[in-house]
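Bug #77: duplicate submission created two jobs. Keeping one. Sequence:
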Amino acid sequence: MRHKPQLGAFLLMLALSLGLTSLPAHAQSGQTASKTADKSAKKKDKPTSVNKGQPVKAKAKDNPQQKVKAKNKAAANNSVQRAKAPAANKSAKNAPSAVKQVRMQSNAHSAQQARPVRASFGQMAGLHATSDALDLHSSVALVVDQDTHEVLYRKNDHAVLPIASLTKLMTGLVIAESKLSMDEPIRITQDDVDTEKGSSSRLAVGTVLSRGDLMHLSLMSSENRAANALGRTFPGGMDNFVDKMNSRAKQLGMKDTRYVEPTGLSSRNQSSAGDLAVLVAVAYKEPMLRELSTSHGREVEVGRRTLQYNNTNRLVKNPAWDIGLQKTGYISEAGRCLVMQTQVSGRKLIMVFLDSAGKLSRLGDAERVRQWLESKPPLHSGQSLPRTYLPG
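Kept job's structure:
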């Protein structure tokens, strides 16, 4: 019994000892729990599906490597977000540039439409508003019986307009009547280069061809440098040649006609359908002009090259047509022009079409006239020209 107090004291000491050891354990557990809670909180602060791309600033400040990693991770998250973005959002993002592109295209188209197109003299004079029975696209037309001088069809035939390369028919006539040698070699020089319209040519400066070849290319293919060289090398020079052109027109009674150069590039070369019908009738009498103007093609040797030239009037190759002489012409001021001597239903005719709108419309007008003559009586019968209108 005497040892009980000692046993109690021992037990008390043991309990106290156990209590003291448990307290630090509880404190350590509390610190561990606190650290776990802190870690969980930090995990919650990391980017999630909602706030991806937001770097952890506190961590990045403390550790430079973590800062770089955070930036890279943010960039990767942003890329993922862009890749997962709906197509509608992408279209919406690109919409301003697409609209801008459409507007630019629209403005360019409007500017192109607004760009003025140079009107021909006939258009400016309102000649295209003139209606006619065959609904021709040429603002001026004249069809004359070469033997009887009867006018079969006419439209604005007294209008005086630029005639473009129809000029070369008078150029050829003056050369043919001059009896100059067709074998004489002529060199193309810088003076033959077109400074009026800036047109191109396959006859380079320095090319040497015979006068006959230059005549051929001028009448068949409307070669401008060839025509200019013919006038430049005429006895007395270019001025004398142009004077010869005008004096010959005056001799033929071509009162509406004026020439300033031999190619037709100048819009100051002007005439009327009536005057041109006279010129065609006279030119037709020259065998060389008939042959060269209706030739289908011509090869010429230029140095080591062979150049192929073709007729500017495709009707000469058409078996439905019998064309004895022809010439085409075009500059913007004159529109598309065509003169021909031809036979339709056994009748010799002279056709003149000036200021036609459209590249092939002058040929279409000729076809319409031919078909009308083959199928119907003349619309303008009994109208005869004075003997001075067409040479006998």
